[in-house]
Design brief:
Largest sheet: 3 strands, antiparallel
Number of domains: 1
Structural class: mainly beta
Number of strands: 5
Helix content: under 10%
Radius of gyration: 15 Å
Low-confidence stretches: none
Distance between the termini: 49 Å
Shape: elongated
Order of helices and strands: EEEEE
Strand order of the largest sheet: 1-4-5
Length: 76
Amino acid sequence: MHDLQVVSVEDLSGEKFLAFSEAQAQDAARLFSVEASLVVRDSSVENMTCSILNPILSWEKVKAVFTPESFFHRSL
């Protein structure tokens, strides 16, 4: 299995987030699974897109992700 970056996370201006982890696996039926995680610490990042790319088939799926303001912990 090739270690390709198949998950990409960007803010709405197109700036890519680099601080996330990605794990890829292939099962006995030769099907792939991808898991990615991202830690957002800046409450100004409210909206982003997550793209999953299949480089073999040149197929990409993009979804918007919205983080509400209440998601971030506020200090009293």
